[in-house]
Write a structure and sequence with these properties.
single chain, 110 residues
Length: 110
């Protein structure tokens, strides 16, 4: 995460998510997540700006919102969910990029 924030700060990475998370940290905020997926990301295609490859979060089925909304009695951070998110969407991608870099050195494209 630190390298990503630094890269955004220096202008080398065009990604809005780092600024959003950093803003939440500064303001001591937490994010909320609905029980079901409310959107379906259709932007995973060849002409996309950032999401040109396949991804396990592309085209997920959507669910409607159940009314009346029920708020938790006590807001709490779900550290297990945070850990799963970081492992699945942050660390794994970093490992995949490192593997691609190594394979690129072994099998250069010509």
């Amino acid at each position: 995460m630190d390298q990503g924030l630094q890269s955004v700060y220096q202008g080398g990475l065009d990604a809005w998510g780092y600024q959003f998370i950093f803003s939440q940290w500064l303001q001591r905020q937490i994010g909320i997540q609905p029980k079901g997926n409310l959107i379906s990301n259709l932007g995973f295609r060849a002409d996309a700006t950032h999401t040109s490859g396949s991804n396990n979060v592309a085209d997920l089925p959507r669910r409607g919102v159940e009314f009346p909304l029920r708020h938790p009695q006590v807001p709490a951070t779900n550290f297990l969910a945070d850990d799963i998110y970081m492992r699945e969407h942050c660390y794994r991608k970093k490992k995949e990029m490192g593997l691609k870099r190594i394979l690129g050195k072994i099998f250069p494209k010509h």
